[in-house]
Design goal:
Length: 279
Amino acid sequence: MSLFTCSLNSGSNGNCYYVGNDREAILVDAGISCREVERRTRRLGLSLLKVKGIFISHEHWDHIKGIPVLAKKYSIPIFITLPTLQNGMLRVSNNLIRDFQAYNPVSIGDLTITAFPKMHDAADPYSFTITCKDVTVGVFTDIGMPCENLIKHFKQCHAAFLETNYDDEMLQNGSYPYYLKKRIRGEKGHLSNHQALELFKTHRATFMSHLFLSHLSKNNNCPELVSKLFTEHADGVKIIVASRWEETAVYHIHSSLTTNPELTSNTFTTAQLVFPFVS
């Protein structure tokens, strides 16, 4: 088995990540409008009719603002904890709400989604891994520090969306007030480029094939800078910067145990994908 994955948007202006197989899919967060989700999935040849759940990491607006319209229009269940629902003040139908528990896997077809707590300044924040048979993709953003939970789950991933929010020097010398710099650098803030790089260098699995550098700050990071930093240490892992302005390509993630490793670097254009367009 294998997984298809992409970022539909990544940054403080909105976050939304797609992970699925050829039958079903899920979104992690929906912090862009329903219209933008539709436009971007259509350009990629992905069908929202295959999306069987939206998993919510936490209640900050850049992760939830598109949920009410998107979930209602496509009747997509929303997997969210009660504290996140209450603090996010989401106006959604109760019949679409599904609870989840840390470390208790949720099965959607052949997909298994596992949540685990993370360090962030939110009511009840979580990261996720999505597994299909022997392939795992992780979504690890909005994290103040690389705790043991993160390290354990990162080691399991064939591909991962990993926060690289800020460059230390750019943040230090930038215009943000001291209290905001302190929050960003704090244990419940965001991962820096070098924190993420150390995690990648030290704990990535030998079978990891793709790394999506995610949730880059508009003011305190530079896509070219962080891409160069990670590429120097990639050792065969494909490095992708997840944009805050547009979707990435769709990447096909294989298990190295069953597939020629040369195929794990493939990206798929709309013409190559078997997913139907959204009607």
